[in-house]
Amino acid sequence: MKNIVKNLRLKRRGVALLAGMHFYGNPSTKLKIIGVTGTNGKTTTATLLYKIATALGYKAGLISTVENIIAGEEVPIPELAPQTTPDPIYLHKLLNEMVEKGCEYVFMEVSSHALDQSRVTGINFTGGIFTNLTHDHLDYHKTIENYFGAKKKFFHMLPPEAFALSNSDDDYGDAMLEHIHARKFTYGFNKFEDFHGEITKLDFNGLLLSINKEEVYSKLLGKFNAYNLLAVWSACKLLGFDMVKVKKVLKNIEPPRGRFEHFTSKNGVLAIVDYAHSPDSLEKILLAVQELKQKNGRIISIFGCGGDRDPFKRPIMGRLGASLSDIAIFTSDNPRSEDSEKIIEQMKSNLAPEDLKKVKTIVNRHEAILEGVKMAKRGDIILCAGKGHENYQEIKGVKSHFDDMEELQKSFRQK
């Protein structure tokens, strides 16, 4: 079996090299490509960098979970291959189109699956960013060590002239930079880093950071976004961007779709949609929501766990969601071939008695959101987590249109 897997990976590596270096003329050598890897924050970091580069007048490309963009024009993500990082043939096709349309920079998410499957083999990266590493995708990688090893491959790929930028506050941040050839840089809030940040102000209006004693303001919310902003600022500095202009762009930049996307209802309820679908990301988003909560306000969380995916994170997410919310509504989230009720029972299996009292079970996600809206009062915060930018619900092999933001807005109109 090991030989079969090895041969399959060698074949994938061969396909990647053939696609990039021969058929498309190795387009990555004609671009400055920045890869972003980590469990959480990849989409936000890559998207912000793309928006900044575009605002500064550069032609740029974006390859992300949410969208692929070439010089301002969105390219549909293939329905049959909706990976965070595309297969090597389609990836090099995108890069070639970016070259043809005059792009100078490309900002792309680099997933652990892509690294393990050699999808980015042969790509010439100008820089790499590591955000964090937490419990996720263990249904595929089996162990956290394998997961880390997949991420580490990316930094071993970087050439000596490239930069490697790592979050030193993360448990794996320093190890990610060990024994690599690229130029090493760190960012964080807790230690002495190359790019040291301090949170000066954090509220519903946004974030005010001090980065190496430079004040930087953003409309983005939450401490987890402070890390994303610090990574973005650091990368812009390493790319030689005009930091005075970068600072101005950051003041008005919006988050990517489905990443802490929010609105306030007419009756004063803050509604948030976020892609958080791992224990760490759910915990961080709920802690960020707690920072925004008014004195007498409540947090109403609505979330589930995906089917045919890592079952071990379900009780962890259930416990985190219930303990950090005033009311937690457990519901479905792409159950796929599994039974939603059984998934929810697994989510409830590790709850303390006091947290179990706060949990409501509503399998139908539409009804769950509607119930959350009916319960919400002025000053409350509703968090719909897990789906973010996704506009579908997959049940028993059938994908039906479903958008958390649309459902929230519709439910408030009905209230």
UniProtKB/TrEMBL annotation:
<dbReference type="InterPro" id="IPR004101">
    <property type="entry name" value="Mur_ligase_C"/>
</dbReference>
<feature type="binding site">
    <location>
        <position position="309"/>
    </location>
    <ligand>
        <name>meso-2,6-diaminopimelate</name>
    </ligand>
</feature>
<keyword id="KW-0963">Cytoplasm</keyword>
<dbReference type="InterPro" id="IPR036565">
    <property type="entry name" value="Mur-like_cat_sf"/>
</dbReference>
<keyword id="KW-0460">Magnesium</keyword>
<keyword id="KW-0067">ATP-binding</keyword>
<feature type="domain" description="Mur ligase C-terminal">
    <location>
        <begin position="258"/>
        <end position="388"/>
    </location>
</feature>
<dbReference type="GO" id="GO:0009252">
    <property type="term" value="P:peptidoglycan biosynthetic process"/>
</dbReference>
<dbReference type="InterPro" id="IPR013221">
    <property type="entry name" value="Mur_ligase_cen"/>
</dbReference>
<keyword id="KW-0547">Nucleotide-binding</keyword>
<dbReference type="GO" id="GO:0008360">
    <property type="term" value="P:regulation of cell shape"/>
</dbReference>
<feature type="binding site">
    <location>
        <begin position="84"/>
        <end position="85"/>
    </location>
    <ligand>
        <name>UDP-N-acetyl-alpha-D-muramoyl-L-alanyl-D-glutamate</name>
    </ligand>
</feature>
<dbReference type="GO" id="GO:0008765">
    <property type="term" value="F:UDP-N-acetylmuramoylalanyl-D-glutamate-2,6-diaminopimelate ligase activity"/>
</dbReference>
<feature type="binding site">
    <location>
        <begin position="333"/>
        <end position="336"/>
    </location>
    <ligand>
        <name>meso-2,6-diaminopimelate</name>
    </ligand>
</feature>
<protein>
    <recommendedName>
        <fullName>UDP-N-acetylmuramoyl-L-alanyl-D-glutamate--2,6-diaminopimelate ligase</fullName>
        <ecNumber>6.3.2.13</ecNumber>
    </recommendedName>
</protein>
<feature type="binding site">
    <location>
        <position position="111"/>
    </location>
    <ligand>
        <name>UDP-N-acetyl-alpha-D-muramoyl-L-alanyl-D-glutamate</name>
    </ligand>
</feature>
<feature type="binding site">
    <location>
        <begin position="38"/>
        <end position="44"/>
    </location>
    <ligand>
        <name>ATP</name>
    </ligand>
</feature>
<comment type="function">
    <text>Catalyzes the addition of meso-diaminopimelic acid to the nucleotide precursor UDP-N-acetylmuramoyl-L-alanyl-D-glutamate (UMAG) in the biosynthesis of bacterial cell-wall peptidoglycan.</text>
</comment>
<keyword id="KW-0436">Ligase</keyword>
<keyword id="KW-0132">Cell division</keyword>
<dbReference type="GO" id="GO:0000287">
    <property type="term" value="F:magnesium ion binding"/>
</dbReference>
<feature type="short sequence motif" description="Meso-diaminopimelate recognition motif">
    <location>
        <begin position="333"/>
        <end position="336"/>
    </location>
</feature>
<feature type="modified residue" description="N6-carboxylysine">
    <location>
        <position position="151"/>
    </location>
</feature>
<keyword id="KW-0131">Cell cycle</keyword>
<feature type="binding site">
    <location>
        <position position="10"/>
    </location>
    <ligand>
        <name>UDP-N-acetyl-alpha-D-muramoyl-L-alanyl-D-glutamate</name>
    </ligand>
</feature>
<dbReference type="InterPro" id="IPR005761">
    <property type="entry name" value="UDP-N-AcMur-Glu-dNH2Pim_ligase"/>
</dbReference>
<dbReference type="Pfam" id="PF08245">
    <property type="entry name" value="Mur_ligase_M"/>
</dbReference>
<feature type="binding site">
    <location>
        <position position="386"/>
    </location>
    <ligand>
        <name>meso-2,6-diaminopimelate</name>
    </ligand>
</feature>
<feature type="binding site">
    <location>
        <position position="119"/>
    </location>
    <ligand>
        <name>UDP-N-acetyl-alpha-D-muramoyl-L-alanyl-D-glutamate</name>
    </ligand>
</feature>
<comment type="pathway">
    <text>Cell wall biogenesis; peptidoglycan biosynthesis.</text>
</comment>
<feature type="binding site">
    <location>
        <position position="390"/>
    </location>
    <ligand>
        <name>meso-2,6-diaminopimelate</name>
    </ligand>
</feature>
<dbReference type="InterPro" id="IPR036615">
    <property type="entry name" value="Mur_ligase_C_dom_sf"/>
</dbReference>
<feature type="binding site">
    <location>
        <position position="117"/>
    </location>
    <ligand>
        <name>UDP-N-acetyl-alpha-D-muramoyl-L-alanyl-D-glutamate</name>
    </ligand>
</feature>
<dbReference type="GO" id="GO:0051301">
    <property type="term" value="P:cell division"/>
</dbReference>
<dbReference type="GO" id="GO:0071555">
    <property type="term" value="P:cell wall organization"/>
</dbReference>
<dbReference type="GO" id="GO:0005524">
    <property type="term" value="F:ATP binding"/>
</dbReference>
<dbReference type="GO" id="GO:0005737">
    <property type="term" value="C:cytoplasm"/>
</dbReference>
<keyword id="KW-0133">Cell shape</keyword>
<dbReference type="Pfam" id="PF02875">
    <property type="entry name" value="Mur_ligase_C"/>
</dbReference>
<keyword id="KW-0573">Peptidoglycan synthesis</keyword>
<comment type="similarity">
    <text>Belongs to the MurCDEF family. MurE subfamily.</text>
</comment>
<feature type="domain" description="Mur ligase central">
    <location>
        <begin position="36"/>
        <end position="234"/>
    </location>
</feature>
